[in-house]
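Hi,

Apologies if this is the wrong queue. I'm a grad student, and the batch job for Germin-like protein from Castanea mollissima produced an output file that my downstream script rejects. I'm not sure whether the problem is my script or the file. Here is the sequence I used:
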Amino acid sequence: MKGVSFLMTVAILALASSFASTYDPSLLQDFCVAINDIKSGVFVNGKFCKDPAQVIANDFFFSGLNIPGNTGNKVGSNVTLVNVDKLAGLNTLGISLARLDFAPYGLNPPHTHPRGTELFVVIEGTFLVGFVTSNPNKLFTKVLNKGDVFVFPIGLIHFQFNIGETAGLAFAGLSSQNPGVITIANAVFGSVPPINPEVLIKAFQLDKNVVEYLQKAFVPN
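Support response: The file is valid. Your script probably expects a header line. Output copied below for reference.
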C-alpha cells in the first residue's frame, strides 16, 4: 500500500509538472489591484522570493501526507492541500499536491479551481467523478477504481463521490502553486455578506423559503 501510494504521488508530480509552465506566470491570486506608490505595495503576483543564500533544504520539504484527514463532517471528505503556503519551495514552480480522504459514500462537493487543472489518482476506493463544461454544460463522468486517473480541466466545475462501502483515498496534482477552490453551494448560499435572496430565487427558480433555508444551512462557522 505504501509503495503504491508513493508511486502514484511521483506519477502525479511528474505529469502535473508537464503543464506547470503554461499557467504560472498567470494570476496566482483572485486579483492584484494596481498601485502607483510602490512604497504602499504589499503583494506581488505570488510570493516574494527568499534570498538564495538563505535557502535551506527544509524550504523544499513537507511532512504529513501519510496522516489520514478527518472525514467526520457533513460531506464525509477531507482535503489536505500542500500549496505554496505549506511548502515555500513551490513558489513559481506552478504545481501543488493534495491528499483526499473519503468516508464510505463521502463526497467532495461540486467545486472549481480557478487557477489550476487537477489530475486525480485513486489509491483506494471506487469513485464516481465528473466535470461540467462551460455552456452548453455537457457532463463528462466516469466510475474510477484503484489505480485509475482522471483529469479535471482548469476552471470547470467537478466532483468526486466515493460510491463504495469502504473508506477511499486519492491524491491530486494541480497545475498551480495556488490553484484556489470555490465550492459551489458554499459560495452561492454561504457568501459573506449573503447574496440577495431575490437573486437566488430567480436564478435557481426556487421558493423563497427554500432559499432562506439553504442560506441558513451554509452560513460559515
